[in-house]
Amino acid sequence: MTEGTDRWNENDIHDGERYARSPLTDAYYRVTRWERIDEEKIRAIGKTEVEREDVPSEWLEVLDDAKMD
């Protein structure tokens, strides 16, 4: 999955900006702080729900491709 602009801190927590979609609710989020669970999954620590149309197109492509898997 494409990485957002981020930097690692000592606790392996990422700070930056990326977008995510909840597989349970199909809600979209702007994520500013997260922990990587595995290669394809993150756990959002800082997030704000956004409308799908507010998600940048490059992120929609990534998130829609992941939804099809």
Give your account of this protein's structure.
The protein has 69 residues and is an alpha+beta fold. 17% of the residues lie in helices and 45% in strands. It has one helix at residues 57-68, and strands at 5-8, 13-21, 28-36, 42-50. Strands 1-2-3-4 form a four-stranded antiparallel sheet. A hairpin with a 4-residue loop joins strand 1 (5-8) and strand 2 (13-21). The longest helix is centred in the last third of the chain and has 12 residues, at 57-68. 12% of the residues are buried.
Q: Topology, pairings included?
A:
Layout lengths: L4 E4 L4 E9 L6 E9 L5 E9 L6 H12 L1
Antiparallel strand pairs: 1-2, 2-3, 3-4
Brief rundown of the structure:
This protein is of the alpha+beta class and 69 residues long. It is built from one helix and four strands. The model has no long low-confidence stretch (mean pLDDT 84).
Uncertain stretches: none
Query: What Rg, in angstroms, do the CA atoms define?
Result: 11 Å
**What topology, given as strand order, has the largest sheet?**
1-2-3-4
Anisotropy-based shape:
globular
Ends apart, CA distance between termini = 12 Å
Question: Averaging pLDDT over every residue, what do you get?
Answer: 84
Number of β-strand runs: 4
Main sheet specs: 4 strands, antiparallel
Supply the helix-strand structural class: alpha+beta
* Strand percent estimate: 35-45%
Task: Work out the helicity level.
Answer: 10-25%
Query: Helical segment tally?
Result: 1
The topology string of helices and strands comes to EEEEH
